[in-house]
Structure formats: C-alpha cells, structure tokens
Write a structure and sequence with these properties.
The complex is a heterodimer of chains A (436) and B (317).
Chain A (H helix, E strand, L loop, with lengths): L5 H18 L10 E7 L5 H17 L2 E7 L4 H11 L5 E4 L4 H5 L8 H10 L6 H4 L8 E4 L5 E4 H7 L7 H13 L4 E2 L6 H13 L17 H17 L11 H7 L5 E3 L3 H9 L14 E4 L15 E5 L6 H11 L2 H10 L9 H4 L3 H4 L6 H6 L12 H8 L2 H10 L5 H18 L5
Parallel strand pairs in A: 1-2, 1-3, 6-7
Antiparallel strand pairs in A: 3-9, 4-9, 5-7, 5-8
Helix pairs in contact in A: 2-14, 8-10, 9-10, 10-19, 11-12, 18-20, 19-20
Chain B lengths: L6 H11 L4 H9 L1 H30 L15 H8 L1 H34 L4 H8 L1 H4 L2 H12 L5 H8 L13 H30 L2 H9 L4 H29 L3 H6 L11 H11 L3 H9 L2 H21 L1
The chains are: A alpha/beta (436), B mainly alpha (317).
Chain lengths: 436, 317
C-alpha cells in the first residue's frame, strides 16, 4: 500500500474541500440524488415499517437514495421550527397535529395543489376538502387521523347492567358506578393532546365552541360552554380519579390495559397493544383485549362531534428536491399503497380520503366497526373556525383543558375560568393577525 | 467535641497557590501577541456561543419575530403582552416560589451534608463520590425515573406508603398543583444538593483548624463555632454557590418538562418551559425570547450585589 504522508493528505483534502466550496456543489461521485423524510413514530409501529418499505421501493425504482427519520411525536414541533429557522433539513416532513402548520409555515411550504388534485379522484375524493385548504391553497396533504371512539370494558359494563351507553350523560352515570367499584372513567385533563381532543369533543357536543366561522370572534363565553363545564366538573369529581390531571397521551391506554379504567375516550391503540402484548385482566387468565370493545364517540345534548390529531405531510419549499418529493407523495397516495399502509396500521391511521374510510380492515375485526362512523363526525380542532396559527396556539397552550380543569378542581368558578380562557384566546388571536 | 480538619488537604491547597514556573511563563507573559493568540480561541467561542445568541435573543424579544421570520422592531410590546397574560403571571409566580424554595432547601441541606461529609472518617472517597451521582446522571434520564416513581397509576412511592399502611389512598403527587410543585422542587433539590455539598465541603476543608481551636479556648460551643467561625468563613463560597444555583434553578427546564409539562393548569410552568412552548412550539419566537429574558435585569442586579459581597468578604480575609 502506498504511504501517504500527513502533508500530502492535508494538501489533497484541503484542495478538494476548497474546490467543492468554490463550485458550490459536491463532486460528481457524490451526486446521487437523495430524498429525506421526517416522520413521527406511530402508536402502531407496523405503519412505520410499511412507510419505510414504500419509500425504499420508490427510491429503488427511481434510483434515488432515501432516508426516513422517525422521531417521537412530541419532538416534531421543535424540529419543524428548527428546520424552518435554518431553512434546511428534510425534504418531506410530517406536519401537525392539526392543520395549523399550513398557516404557521405558509411561506415555507411548497404548493401541493397539483398533487392534491391528482390523488383525490383515485381515492374517492377528500373527506372534507374545504377544511384542508388553507388561505385557498393546498400547503399540505392531510395524511392520517386516529379517530376517537370510546374504548370500553364489556365485562364491567355487563356487571353494572349497562347495555349501550351512548351519551356523555350515560358515561357519567356509568363512570360513577364504575368508580364506586374501583373502575373509574378515564379521560386526560392535563397538558396532553388527548385532553384537547376529548374536552373539545364535549364542548361541541354541548353546543359550545371557542372561535366563530370567521376565525376571529372568540365564542367561548356562552351558556353552552357553561353547561359543558358543569358536566365535566361532575364527570371529574364523580366518575374519575384526580390523576387524570397529570395524564399524558399514553396514560389512558395504561389505565385501560391495567384493568383499572372502565372506559377511555381514545383511538384503538390501547387495544392494539393489549392484543400484541397479550395483557391479561388482573387476577385472571383472561386476555384483556377480549373484553375491550370500541363504540361510537358519545353524543351530547346538541350534537355528536369529535376531533383528533390531524396528521399531515408537506414539502419544505427550501428543499432542493420538491419535484422528487411530490413524486413520492403521488406514489404513496396511490390507492394500492395507501391500502397496504392502512392495513399495516390496523386502521389506526385513517386517511382523509373517502375510499380509505371504507377499507376492508374496518370490517376485519368487529372492534373497528365504529371507526368510519366516528370519522364522519370528526372535525378539525378549530371547528367551526378555520385552522390557523392562532388555533394551533390555543391547542399548544392547552387553553381548553386548563379552562375545564380549573373549574372542575374548584380553583375557579365557571365564569372565572371562561373569562380566563376568553382573555387568553383573544390575546392569541389578536397577536396572530397577519401582517399586511 | 472537636471538629476535625484534614490538614493534608489544607496543605495541598496552600501549595497550589504558589507553584513557580518562572522561565517559560515570564516569556509568555511578556510576549503580547502570544497571549492574544492563547486568549483568541476562548474569546471567539464566547463571542459566537454566548454573545451572539444573547444579542440575538435580545433582538428577538424586542421584535415580533416568528419562526422563519426575522420580524420587525416592536419595542417592549412583547413584555407588555406578557404582563397581560394570566399564564405568564402564573409562570412568574411559579418561578419565584420554585427558585426560593429549592435554593433554601439546597442551602440548608447542602450545609448539613457538607458538615457530615467533613466529619466522615471511613470510606471517605467512596461516599463523597457517591454523593455526586445525582449531579452526574443526565437530568432527563434521572427525572424520568422520578416520573416513574410519582406517576399516577403505578407510583412506587404510593405503593410503598400504602403497603406500609401510612396512607390508604393514592397521593396525587403530579395531578395536584401544589403537590406537583412540591415534587418538582424535591427533584430539583435532589439534583442540586451534591453541588452545594461538595463545594461547601471544599470551603470547610480550607478553614484553618487553629481558628476553631482559638474559638474553643474562648469557650465557644459547637453552635457558636458554627455561627462565628464556619459561616463567616464560608460566606464567599456560599455566595458563589447560591449565585450559580439561583441562575441554574431559575432556568430549569428538564425537570418540569419531564414531570409535569407545566401542568396541572400551568401551575408548574417555569420561564424555560413556558418560553419553549410559546417560542418553539407555537412559533412566537419574539414572545418566547421575552419570557426567557424577563428576569435578566433582576438577575443582573443579583449577580452584581452578590459579587460585591464576595469581593468584600475576600478583602476581609
């Protein structure tokens, strides 16, 4: 082997580096095209494996090197902010939860009008197209949602002589009886995404909302909100344990799978992990998955509505591979690929496309029978207002859960808590007015 | 009873003060360009890693910058807006309570621990090393273990208390706002204690033994010796330790983020966690920067006063 002296090595490498710098691009040998994708870890890990498989398959077909980076969902917000701030990072990125990113990062996301129009007809059209258009443009593709049914313990319901609870009031009654025998109802009320989802669902079901259709008027101060708050106070004090104030997104899953909670308002992830890990009902040999069922998200006096994490996908416009990235999105959104991906996720990851809500997976297990029904009443978190950076901030700062919790725990009266939330939201919406 | 002083350690410390290396250092000191060259790297590191981010965040706090936008100058608008926000006022209150309580606990317990370590004769090194553990383990990791211990459903603390029949219900460590604050203070104290103990121990070791003997012959008891010899002589060390710890405690992020995420209803948010939520998660960089810089003027005053105290105490020596 020829020996290279230190001096020679330095001269060659320094020269090479200077050359590359002067040309502003990598030398030809290194010029393979590379597409990078930042995504979040799914609660059903097979979903990620299928996505990776499709990404690699597409890469092999198109002779593109691909890299899929998967991070925990809580890290995504900071990661996006850092990439935008630095104007560099991945080409494709997961966005959300919520469609607010399209407004927040409007100037940094590539237009996806062409892709959105291409993929829709093949999949039976978008579920609710007008919700996904931000300032009249497709800045992201809504990707998947985990609908929120009610996950219940059928054996405990039977013990209580409860047939099919359907309204929030029914669940208060069931929860009260359940709590008396050590099996409380469970819904997060702290700083977690699930708390946002369930408490917004209750607010709407009682006829309340926090922002008007115009996306400006704060509508939280209403008698409907008061009703919803009184209901949640009763639910908290009579049917739940105080621990729900400190729950994170995985706590309710644990509560159900530990055999404690009689019911939780949650996607099918708890059931999926119970099934996979063969969790048993404490003190018995019976698998807990066998006594879990999923039923419709509850109805309130005014409506039956729910929301969920609207996970989306977009392309940074500072990416050098916008066209390649679009090509992959077209590939992934082909019916057969989406079908396989939903299959892999056992339906946890429901796309916002009509045909996919009728995927055979939802008929494969009776557990999933209500999921398409729940999807029909699922609206974006800012409903009836549009998705904006402001609505995203209301979500990120947990204003809704905090409003409910401050009243439920007796820290504030209903009026005080509403006034508090109203003021915070007015400040957020006023501070988010777009510069002309 | 006689307080022991490790003479060897004192001798070593004294020896470190001198240590003449005449020839080489004389040359280096006189050669100004060489001196600049040596200071250069540190200076540039400070400039880019401390001064630049600081000036940038100062600018951010006075602008309406959002993620991806440099923003334009808005004066003190961000600060005015913060003062109108209930969440921020709560954060301000939490930060003061958290810092005051944690600092007091760390100072008192740290002093006790240092005195105990000082009197230790057997397994001295092993125990002194072990005491440092909480400080060495990455905070995010150790706090996660604390979270498991206090986690609502499987709390091992509650399990133990219930098994010992001390309580018959689950104590809501994290769901109750006051207990949650207690828990984050507890974990912060646990983590910061070694820093106090070991630094104060170094101070104790440096106090000449003769002073205690003189005090003893003047009839001072153990408490008198502690108040009139130990405390005054430890003051400079104590001031520096408290100063550093005040800054670190006020800027704590990991413990709250892992244990409570600022909840329940923002009752445990600190400047760093709220600034993170506002600045990075919601993209309001200007306001996020304003949150983290809010205490800067106060801290500056504290640093100034404390450093003056240290200097005075040093002169008294």
């Amino acid at each position: 082997m020829a020996r290279v002296s230190r001096r020679q090595f330095l001269r060659v490498t320094a020269g090479g580096a200077a050359g590359a710098l002067a040309l502003g691009r990598a030398p030809a040998v290194a010029q393979t095209r590379e597409l990078t994708f930042l995504s979040i870890a799914s609660f059903v890990p097979e979903t990620d494996k299928e996505l990776k498989r499709q990404f690699e398959e597409w890469g092999a077909k198109n002779k593109v090197k691909v890299r899929l980076d998967i991070i925990a969902h809580l890290q995504l917000q900071t990661k996006k902010a850092a990439e935008v701030q630095a104007r560099s990072g991945h080409d494709l990125t997961a966005l959300g939860p919520g469609l607010g990113d399209a407004d927040l990062y409007f100037d940094y996301l590539a237009d996806l009008n062409d892709v959105a129009t291409d993929v829709a007809p093949k999949n039976g059209g978008w579920l609710s197209q007008s919700d996904y258009l931000i300032r009249g443009k497709w800045k992201l593709l809504p990707w998947w949602q985990p609908p929120f049914p009610m996950a219940v313990r059928t054996d405990l319901l039977e013990k209580l002589g409860e047939k099919s609870p359907d309204t929030w009031e029914d669940w208060l009654r069931v929860g009260k009886k359940g709590k008396a025998m050590g099996h409380p109802f469970g819904t997060a009320m702290g700083h977690s995404g699930d708390a946002n989802v369930t408490l917004l669902s209750i607010l709407w079901s009682y006829g309340g909302s926090y922002v008007g259709k115009d996306g400006k008027t704060i509508t939280i101060n209403s008698k409907e909100t008061r009703q919803a708050m009184d209901f949640v106070k009763r639910l908290y004090t009579e049917a739940m344990d105080p621990e729900v104030l400190a729950w994170d997104d995985a706590s309710n899953n644990r509560c159900l799978n530990a055999g404690k909670c009689i019911a939780i308002h949650n996607p099918i992830s708890a059931y999926e992990s119970a099934k996979k890990d063969k969790v048993v009902v404490p003190g018995t040999q019976k698998e807990i998955a066998e006594v879990i069922d999923h039923i419709h998200t509850p109805r309130g006096p005014a409506d039956r509505k729910a929301t969920t994490g609207f996970w989306c996908v977009g392309i940074w416009n500072f990416s050098k591979n916008v066209d390649l990235a679009k090509d992959f999105l077209r590939y992934h959104f082909q019916p057969e690929n989406l079908n396989k991906w939903v299959e892999a996720g056992h339906g946890f990851n429901m796309p916002f496309l009509t045909n996919l809500t009728r995927h055979p997976v939802y008929k494969s297990d009776k557990q999933y029978r209500f999921i398409p029904e729940v999807a029909k009443v699922t609206v974006p978190p800012s409903w009836p207002g549009p998705n904006t950076a402001a609505s995203q901030q209301v979500w990120d700062l947990y204003i809704i859960p905090d409003m409910f919790a401050q009243h439920a725990t007796g820290k504030m009266t209903a009026d005080q808590a509403i006034a508090w939330a109203e003021k915070e939201m007015q400040e957020i919406y006023a501070g988010r007015k777009r510069k002309p | 009873m006689q307080l022991k002083t490790v003479e060897g350690d004192v001798a070593k410390l004294a020896a470190r003060g001198e240590a003449p290396t005449a020839g080489l250092s004389d040359f280096l000191v006189r050669d100004t360009p060489v001196a600049y060259a040596f200071i250069g790297p540190a200076f540039f590191l400070l400039l880019f890693l401390v001064a630049y981010p600081f000036v940038l965040s100062l600018w951010f706090s006075l602008s309406d910058a959002r993620v991806g936008e440099t923003g334009s100058f808005v004066g003190l608008d961000n600060f005015a807006r913060l003062l109108r926000s209930g969440i921020f006022l709560q954060t301000l209150q939490n930060s003061i309570v958290f810092t005051a309580a944690a600092l007091t606990l760390k100072t008192v317990l740290g002093m006790i621990l240092a005195l105990l370590l000082f009197r230790l004769v057997r397994f001295k090194r092993l125990i002194r090393g072990a005491v440092l553990l909480p400080f060495i383990v990455p905070t995010a990791l150790s706090t996660l273990v604390w979270w498991w211990m206090f986690e609502p459903l499987y709390s091992v603390v509650n399990w133990t208390l219930k098994s010992l029949h001390i309580v018959n219900y689950d104590i809501p460590w994290l769901p109750d706002p006051y207990l949650a604050m207690f828990t984050v203070i507890l974990v912060n104290t646990w983590r910061g204690l070694p820093f106090f103990a070991i630094t104060l121990l170094a101070g104790l070791v440096a106090i000449p033994r003769e002073l205690y003997e003189a005090a003893e012959s003047d009839g001072a008891g153990p408490i008198g010796r502690f108040w009139h010899v130990t405390v005054p002589l430890l003051k400079p060390v104590l001031a520096v330790v408290i100063l550093f710890s005040a800054i670190f405690t006020l800027a704590d992020f990991n413990i709250v983020y892992v244990l409570t995420k600022g909840g329940p209803f923002n009752m445990t948010h600190l400047f760093a966690t709220y600034s993170f939520v506002l600045g990075l998660q919601s993209g309001q960089i200007g306001q996020g920067a304003a949150v983290s810089l809010f205490l800067f003027p106060i801290l500056l005053a504290v640093v100034f006063v404390q450093l003056r105290m240290v200097r005075k105490a040093a002169m008294y020596d």
